[in-house]
What does this fold into?
Amino acid sequence: MQEQLLTAGEFAKLARTTKRTVLWYAEKGILLPCKIDDSGYRFYKPQQIIDFQSVLLMRKLGLSIAEITTMLTGGQQLQQLFERQRGLIKQQIGQLERMLSDTTRYYHNLDASGTLVLPKLKQVKSFDMYVLTKEGPYARIKDYTAEFQNMFVHLPSGSVRLTAFMRSAYLPAKAQMKIGVICEPGLQLKPGLTVNRETVPAYTALSYMHQGSTTLLSLLWQELGRYCRKQHFVLDTSLPFANVEFYRPDTSAYPDPEDSLLTELHMPVRTDKP
It folds into this structure.
C-alpha cells in the first residue's frame, strides 16, 4: 500500500500550527517535505509531525534557527538532535516544575502567615558537632565549607552539614559563624589536624525547609524573623549560636546539584511563649 502523505495545509492542521510556519521551516532547511510534485505542492509524512514537535522543543530551549540548521547540515537527523538535547529538555522541565511549586508555596505561606514562610515548631535533641569558626561574608560559606570538608579523610554521603550564626542580625559582609558537621560514625580527621568538637543542648526551634539554590536563604531568614515577631515568639539566647541552617542532600535525582540541596533553617525560640 502506498504511504499516505499530507499536504502542507493538512500537516499544519494536525500539528496545530499554520501552513505559513510549515513552509517557513522548509525554506530554512529544517522541516523538508518528503515529496514535491510537478505543480510545486509539498507533501509530508505523518511521522514528520514528531520532527516538528522536537524542533519546537529545541527552540524553547533557546537553540536558534541557525544553530539547528548548522547541526542538520552536519549530517544529523532531527531525531538525533532531539536525543542530544533531551537532557537539557528534562532539566528545563524540572526547573519549571520547581518554580511552579515554589511560587505556589510562597503564595500559600503569604495567605496563611503574612510572610513567605510557614515554619513548624520543632523539638531538637542534643547533638555533637565538629566546627570551624569563621568570620566573613555569607557569599564565602561555600568556600569555608570546602575548606572544612578538606580536613576530613572522608565525609559519608549522608552527613548533615551546617552553618551556625553567632548573631541573629543580618550581617552579609562580616558574619560570625561556625561551619560544621554533625558527629557520626565514619567521620575521620586527616592525620595531624585538630577540629573543635562541641555539644549542642536540646532546644526548640521555628523550623523551615527550603529546597534548591541557596541564593534565597538571606531573604527567607528575614521572613522567618518577621514570622517570629508577628507570632510573638521569644528568641532563645541560651545556645552557643543564634540561628543555624542544616544542609541535607536529597535522594531525588535533579540534574543540577543546587536543586537537590535541602536546607533546614532553625531559629531557636523559648517555649514559654506568651
User: Anything to note?
Assistant: The radius of gyration is 28 Å. The domain at 114-268 is CATH 3.20.80.10 (Multidrug-efflux Transporter 1 Regulator Bmrr; Chain A). The longest strand covers residues 127-136. The longest helix spans residues 78-113.
